[in-house]
Amino acid sequence: MFRLPSLRAVISLAVVATPLAAGDLPVPEENPVLVVSGAITNTNVGGTASFDYEMLEAMDTVTFTTKTIWTDGEQTFTGVQLSDLMALVGAEGEDIKATAINDYAVNIPRADWVDGGPIVAFLNHGEKMPVRNKGPLWIVYPFDQKPEYQTEQIYSRAIWQLDRIIVLD
Q1: Domain spans in the chain, listed from the N-terminal domain onward
Q2: Per-residue pLDDT tens for 69-86?
Q3: Class for domain 27-168, per CATH?
Q4: Cβ count near 3 (within 10 Å)
């Protein structure tokens, strides 16, 4: 017997198949995993840009393999380029303050928001990262690709358990 897909299934497929673009920021359907605020022009919830997993997964993603100083062996991360995320929210500042669930915070300058630079990773080895394993989100640089990414300053910017970003004026 042939069954038509439910409307929710069709909408879900449309969301996954259509990458998010600037000016097109839907309201998250699930609990947000990331809230971006501050000097941004594209918002969706009370002056912030809030993202659930499905919204991040709907964006163009990048996957790379790198070693980190916190894990054993090579790790394969998938996520959204920080530069793409900042473009999507219309970031107007020169720095961001990235904050973790435990309130650890670090500033990341605009100079780091480049193609081929850090990503906001939501998968490690193809799996969502639980909080106990540095999830749900981790700003990861492709450490093995550039020697300038192998410094204490850059390592300090690789914040895990990320849940908030404030774009600073």
Answers
A1: 27-168
A2: 999 999 999 999 999 999
A3: alpha beta
A4: 5
